[in-house]
Each structure stands twice: as C-alpha cells, then as structure tokens.
Amino acid sequence: MIRKILLFAAFSGFMAVGLGAIAAHGLKASLTPALLSAFQTGVQYQMYHALALLGIAALLYKDHLPWLTRAAICFMVGTLLFSGSLYALALGGPHWLGPITPVGGVAFLCGWLCLGVAAWQVTTR
C-alpha cells in the first residue's frame, strides 16, 4: 500500500504544479475570477493532501497502522472528488458535479480524523 500512496502523492503533486501553472498562465484570460478562484482552490487542496500523503507513507514505512491507511484512502478519494470536481466545474463541466465537491471535502475531513485516531494509537518508545 505504501507504493500506491507514494505514487498517488507523486502524481498528485505533479498535477497540482502543472494545473497551477496552467491556471496562472493559460486560464487567467479565459475564466471569470470566481471560476479561476475555484480552480486554484482545487490546486491548493490537491497539493496540501499530496504532501500529507507523503507524510503518511513515511509513517507507514515505520509502523503499519490501519488508521493511517484509512487516512490515506480518504485523502486520495477527497482529492479526486473535491479537486477533480472543482477543475471540471471551472472548465465548464456539468452542474451536477457541484454536489460532489462537498463530498470530497467530507472525505478530507474523515482523513484528518483517521490520522488523529492513528496518532492516538501510536505508542511512544
């Protein structure tokens, strides 16, 4: 599972940088300020959670805690739903994607809760 988390984190970080550059240089002229802001929010949250996934992978390498794996899964699902729906909506995707964004946000929240549970279970040496 560590390899999958690391691969997702690497790809997600790569995409966040690329999409951020596209937004800053290519979409600025074609999107309204509100849509550009939504797109940039997707980029920011994607990068935050790519970095969090790197931390989780490092922790999993040391000690396999099931709650860490659950946190990683929630962060990955959150990235796909939250950031993905914001990108699609900003680029003219169907409006039915709007309700998917908060589901991704809830997945992020669940991931942070799972990380907290994992922290609670860590034993100090």
What does this structure look like?
With 125 residues, the protein is mostly helical. It has one domain. The protein is built from four helices and no strands. It has helices spanning 2-27, 33-62, 66-90, 100-121. Helix 1 (2-27) runs antiparallel to helix 2 (33-62) and helix 2 (33-62) runs antiparallel to helix 3. The radius of gyration is 16 Å and the shape is elongated. The two termini are 25 Å apart.
Question: Which short descriptors sum up this protein?
Answer:
125 residues; mainly alpha; 4 helices; 82% helix
How much helicity do the residues have? over 70%
Number of strands: 0
- As residue ranges, the low-confidence spans are none
End-to-end gap: 25 Å
Briefly note the structural class of the backbone. mainly alpha
Q: Which descriptor suits the 3D outline?
A: elongated
Overall number of structural domains: 1
